[in-house]
Amino acid sequence: MDTRIKIEKRTISKVKGIQTEVWNDYYSCWCKVLDLYGKEKYEAYNVKLENSLKFKCRACLLLKAILFKTKEFRVTWDNITFNILFVDTMSNSKTDIILQVQAVS
């Protein structure tokens, strides 16, 4: 685990009757960046997910809370913002969680 990522949570607020999205810091953690490879990479190209990565993080309750609410969270790493596509608990592993993300264009 050699890379620091920041996870942000979306909140909707109304300013003068207009809804606006605000991204607030939710959690920051160390992780390992994993690239897609082999069959995974070709499948990603077929469904137009070229700019996809995986972040392998240590499991915690804050990360498990993201599991069914991926649209409300995003990841920032190296000044690049990523939408969370999928959270893999690795068969309910107690040690690791993998966040599959795609760069925001």
Order of helices and strands: EEHEHEEE
- From the N-terminal CA to the C-terminal CA, the straight-line distance is 27 Å
CATH architecture: Beta Barrel
Q: Taking strands numbered 1, 2, ... along the chain, how are they ordered across the largest sheet?
A: 1-2-3-6-5-4
Description:
The protein has 105 residues and is mainly beta. 11% of the residues lie in helices and 57% in strands. The protein is built from two helices and six strands, in the order ββαβαβββ. It has helices at 39-46, 61-64, and strands at residues 3-15, 18-35, 52-58, 73-77, 80-88, 96-103. Strands 1-2-3-6-5-4 form a six-stranded antiparallel barrel.
List the helices and strands and how they pair.
Blueprint: E1 3-15, E2 18-35, H1 39-46, E3 52-58, H2 61-64, E4 73-77, E5 80-88, E6 96-103
Antiparallel strand pairs: 1-2, 1-4, 2-3, 3-6, 4-5, 5-6
Quick synopsis:
This protein is mainly beta. It contains 2 helices and 6 strands; from the N terminus they run ββαβαβββ.
Keywords:
single chain; mainly beta; Thrombin, subunit H; 2 helices; 6 strands
